[in-house]
Design brief:
single chain; 284 residues; alpha/beta; D-Maltodextrin-Binding Protein, domain 2; 2 domains; six-stranded mixed beta sheet; elongated; lyase
Length: 284
C-alpha cells in the first residue's frame, strides 16, 4: 500500500487511487479579448451631391453621332439633340456641363469607373446593358435602317442586304452589332472600330452597306450626296433610347427622370428634336 502525507506533515490514511478521487475543480481560463464590432465602410456620397459640390456635370458622349452628339468638323463645336438636353440638365442643376468623349464599346466602363455621371448619347436600352447601367425613362425610339450608295448595283432594296458576297458594317458596341450577328445568314458582318467610321468603310469600298438608326441615317442624307437610305420592313430592330446612369443611385436616377418629365411638358425636348430633325423619333 502506498502511504500519502497530508500537507500538515501528519501521517494519514492511505488515499484512494487518483482514478477514484474526485477531480479537482478546473482552473478558470482567461477570456479571449473581445473583438471590436465590424465597422461598415462609409457609403459613397450620392452622385447628385457630388455633382453639385464640384459644380460640374460629366457627360459621356459619342462625338460621331450625327444629330445626337456630333462634333462638327467645320468648327469643332458639339451639336445634336443630346447636347442640347445635356446643357438643359446642367442648367437645371446649376452646374457646368463637361463632355467626355467615348464610344458605345466603352461608355459603360466609364460610368462604372466614375469618369462620367451620365451618358447622354442616344443609348438604346437592351437587356445586356441593363445588367451594368441604370436607364432613365425613354425619350426617343428608332428602327434600324440601311445606308448604301446611290450608285450601288448590289443593294437596291432591303432583301439585297443579306446575300452572299455582301459586306454589312456596324459600329462596335452598338445595338446593331448583336442584332446583325443574329440576323445575317449569308452576308459578311464588318464591325467598325474607332477611329474608322461607318461612312468611311462605304466610301473606301470595304462595305456595301451599314446599319444604323433614324438619327444617324437622316443626318447622312443631309451631309453626303452619295448616301441612300433603305427603309426597314416592320420596324426592324426597333429600340427605345434613354439616358444611362451608374447603377445603385436612386436619387440621381429620380432627378434625371424628373428632368425628362418636365422637358417633355415644357417643350424642351420637342424644341431640341425639331432643331435636329428628330421630331418623328421622340417619345413622350
Amino acid at each position: 500500500m502506498v502511504l500519502f502525507f497530508e500537507m500538515n506533515g501528519a501521517w494519514g490514511q492511505a488515499q484512494p487511487p487518483a482514478s477514484n478521487r474526485p477531480a479537482a475543480p478546473a482552473k478558470p481560463t482567461a477570456a479571449a479579448p473581445a473583438r471590436p464590432p465590424a465597422v461598415e465602410p462609409p457609403a459613397p456620397p450620392e452622385r447628385l451631391a457630388l455633382i453639385r459640390s464640384r459644380g460640374e456635370l460629366a457627360i459621356c458622349i459619342w462625338p460621331d453621332y450625327f444629330a445626337v452628339s456630333y462634333r462638327n468638323p467645320r468648327n469643332s463645336e458639339l451639336e445634336g439633340i443630346d447636347i442640347d438636353m445635356a446643357r438643359a440638365l446642367a442648367n437645371r442643376l446649376l452646374v457646368q456641363p463637361r463632355f467626355v468623349d467615348t464610344n458605345f464599346a466603352e461608355f459603360m466602363d466609364r460610368l462604372e469607373a466614375g469618369s462620367c455621371d451620365i451618358a447622354m448619347t442616344g443609348v438604346g436600352i437592351s437587356a445586356a446593358r441593363q445588367q451594368r447601367v441604370a436607364f432613365s425613362k425613354p425619350y426617343m425610339t428608332s428602327a434600324v435602317y440601311a445606308v448604301t450608295t446611290r450608285e450601288s448595283n448590289r443593294i437596291t432594296r432591303w432583301d439585297d442586304i443579306d446575300t452572299v458576297g455582301t459586306v454589312v458594317a456596324v459600329a462596335v458596341g452598338t445595338l446593331m452589332e448583336p442584332l446583325m450577328r443574329r440576323s445575317l445568314k449569308a452576308a459578311e458582318l464588318l464591325v467598325v472600330r474607332p477611329p474608322r467610321t461607318l461612312e468611311s468603310e462605304i466610301q473606301a469600298g470595304r462595305a456595301d452597306a451599314f446599319m444604323s438608326d433614324f438619327a444617324y441615317t437622316r443626318r447622312m442624307l443631309s451631309v453626303h450626296d452619295w448616301a441612300r437610305v433603305i427603309e426597314p420592313p416592320d420596324r426592324f430592330g426597333e429600340a427605345l433610347y434613354a439616358y444611362a446612369l451608374p447603377r445603385g443611385d436612386a436619387s440621381w436616377l429620380a432627378e434625371v427622370n424628373n428632368f425628362l418629365t418636365v422637358a417633355k411638358v415644357d417643350g424642351t425636348l420637342a424644341r431640341a428634336g425639331a432643331r435636329h430633325g428628330l421630331s418623328a423619333a421622340l417619345v413622350y
